[in-house]
User: Which sequence fits this backbone?
């Protein structure tokens, strides 16, 4: 564990817990869960955790992580890429697929968010 992670707790565990809590909330609210949707944030949480594990994910998986229809997820991926928060590249093993990773800028911003969140716990 890096010194920065020790100082702020493990941000990957924090991101993973936040993501899981959001899925539990969605389950418990059922049909009304869409009222709380934040697809861009869910995508970034998933990519943050995947990035820490060194595992880029497919655009399809990123859409699933957002818990929204594929077309909505793809719109958010395009927006996140335009804003420089994610990066995409061709999959070397499957040219039909694009892989998605979180950008350095987004990763740094998320770590700052997690650090600030600790002030409230």
Assistant:
């Amino acid at each position: 564990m890096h010194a920065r992670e020790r100082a702020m707790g493990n941000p990957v565990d924090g991101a993973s817990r936040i993501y899981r809590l959001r899925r539990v909330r969605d389950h418990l609210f059922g049909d009304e869960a869409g009222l709380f949707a934040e697809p861009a944030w869910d995508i970034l949480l998933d990519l943050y955790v995947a990035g820490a594990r060194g595992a880029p994910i497919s655009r399809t998986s990123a859409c699933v992580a957002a818990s929204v229809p594929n077309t909505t997820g793809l719109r958010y991926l395009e927006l996140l890429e335009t804003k420089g928060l994610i990066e995409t590249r061709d999959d070397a093993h499957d040219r039909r697929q694009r892989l998605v990773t979180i950008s350095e800028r987004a990763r740094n911003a998320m770590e700052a968010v997690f650090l600030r969140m600790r002030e409230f716990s």
